[in-house]
Recover the amino acids of this structure.
């Protein structure tokens, strides 16, 4: 979409407050440090000039090393797709974000029965077809089937992704052994190691444990991604009052410190490795102890973290936006995800994920995915701003039309009829009589029809048969 007048921006913090948050984070890394449960990385950071306590696995770094690592990051990289025409560019300062579905989910709200149940391979196959078909989804994130043994679940998931979409795909692994296999699978799809580096057809996702603890597998993912030039979604997800400070500003402070520590690990290991920052914030419901993903405070903290990251780092920022704390696609979900999509977009996120997720990101709802398509359409239209060139100001058209006339046949109406207004897919804009004649369907029913139609009719570009067999053989060898 052509953004012509994008001046809308949310800034929660002043310039001085952003500088203070960054200075505090640098002090935390130098005086308090972060824990790294990875012997090789402890040695690497020691050799790079960090202070390392091997017994406690604590690393303390001074500002010169942090600055060096921040200076080696890249502001632009390509998320390659099996179909090169669907490649996605990630960079700082993007006028509009790219979008991906909610990933990591292993439960589904059955589109036919409404039952909350385990995700199956048959479900993810259908859903990847839908995600391949939906124009607003740029990157497809993993949905994990429960009818596959955990040992190979991530491998089967990536295999199913490659088979059922030609878009860029994202994955999170469950073991170091499988991480190496995922890389081999990417090489098979890309046509070799060098081709994978030039146009990485998948990306990796991982995060530390808040506050400031980096488990061994997380570090392995960070380093392996950089070693092979695979883009990394470098996440963190503290919960306010539990694994993060209670205050909104304190959460932004912790998120920034953890992202700095992540950059130090990744860029010390592989300078110039492609990465995007992925700050996430949840709150805790003190009445129930439940983690809330969609409170307005979570939305504000995430937006604040995007602002700080954009003003300190020279890296694209991705966030998990439209979560919901309700269990179905209802009015509560609509309220929550509207803020969670619009606020990150207006704060300058390069990428927004979460479409289709409900129940704190624990369940995927195909009907919600259909509704989210309209949410994105509204968001992109809002980001366009209001172009105010002489032609669109219509001063001459007002004179032409005269007193009490209408503009239905004016040349400006015809010229901008299909460009200046968003055309919805499933929203109701019928009269009551026409709506009743069409079956009095609400938005959920219309979304269900659209998604089921895509499930039945859309066929993704098939994998080359030899490539498909190589993938299947590799995954089967891991059983």
């Amino acid at each position: 979409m052509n953004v012509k007048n994008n001046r809308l921006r949310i800034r929660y913090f002043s310039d001085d407050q952003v500088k203070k948050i960054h200075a505090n984070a640098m002090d935390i890394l130098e005086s308090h440090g972060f824990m790294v449960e990875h012997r090789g990385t402890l040695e690497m950071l020691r050799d790079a000039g960090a202070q390392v306590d091997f017994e406690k696995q604590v690393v303390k770094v001074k500002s010169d090393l942090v600055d060096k690592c921040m200076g080696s990051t890249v502001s632009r990289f390509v998320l390659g797709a099996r179909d090169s025409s669907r490649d996605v560019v990630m960079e700082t300062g993007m006028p509009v974000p790219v979008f991906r579905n909610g990933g990591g989910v292993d439960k589904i709200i059955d589109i036919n029965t409404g039952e909350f149940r385990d995700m199956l391979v048959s479900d993810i196959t259908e859903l990847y077809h839908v995600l391949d078909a939906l124009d607003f989804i740029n990157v497809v994130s993993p949905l994990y089937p429960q009818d596959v043994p955990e040992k190979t679940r991530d491998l089967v998931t990536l295999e199913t992704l490659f088979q059922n979409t030609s878009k860029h795909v994202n994955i999170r692994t469950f073991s170091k052994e499988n991480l190496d296999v995922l890389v081999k699978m990417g090489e098979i799809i890309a046509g070799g190691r060098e081709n994978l580096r030039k146009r990485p057809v998948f990306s990796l996702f991982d995060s530390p444990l808040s506050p400031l603890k980096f488990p061994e597998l997380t570090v392995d993912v960070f380093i392996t991604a950089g070693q092979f030039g695979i883009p990394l979604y470098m996440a963190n997800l503290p919960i306010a009052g539990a694994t993060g400070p209670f205050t909104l500003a304190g959460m932004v402070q912790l998120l920034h410190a953890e992202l700095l520590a992540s950059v130090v690990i990744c860029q010390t290991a592989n300078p110039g490795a492609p990465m995007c920052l992925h700050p996430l914030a949840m709150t805790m419901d003190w009445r129930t102890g439940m983690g809330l993903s969609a409170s307005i405070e979570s939305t504000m903290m995430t937006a604040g973290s995007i602002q700080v990251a954009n003003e300190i780092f020279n890296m694209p920022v991705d966030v998990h936006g439209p979560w919901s704390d309700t269990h179905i696609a209802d009015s509560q979900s609509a309220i929550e995800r509207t803020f969670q999509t619009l606020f990150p977009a207006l704060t300058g996120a390069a990428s927004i994920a979460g479409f289709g997720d409900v129940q704190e990101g624990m369940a995927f709802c195909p009907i919600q995915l259909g509704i989210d398509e309209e949410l994105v359409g509204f968001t992109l239209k809002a980001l366009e701003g209001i172009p105010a060139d002489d032609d669109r100001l219509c001063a001459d058209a007002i004179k032409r039309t005269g007193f009490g006339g209408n503009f239905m046949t004016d040349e400006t109406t015809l010229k901008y009829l299909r460009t200046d207004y968003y055309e919805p897919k499933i929203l109701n804009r019928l009269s009551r009589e026409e709506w009743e004649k069409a079956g009095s369907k609400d938005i959920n029913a219309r979304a269900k029809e659209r998604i089921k139609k895509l499930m039945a009719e859309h066929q993704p570009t098939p994998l080359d048969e030899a490539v498909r067999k190589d993938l299947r053989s590799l995954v089967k060898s891991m059983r």
Summary: The longest strand covers residues 202-206. The two ends are 45 Å apart (CA to CA). Confidence is low (pLDDT under 50) at residues 1-6.
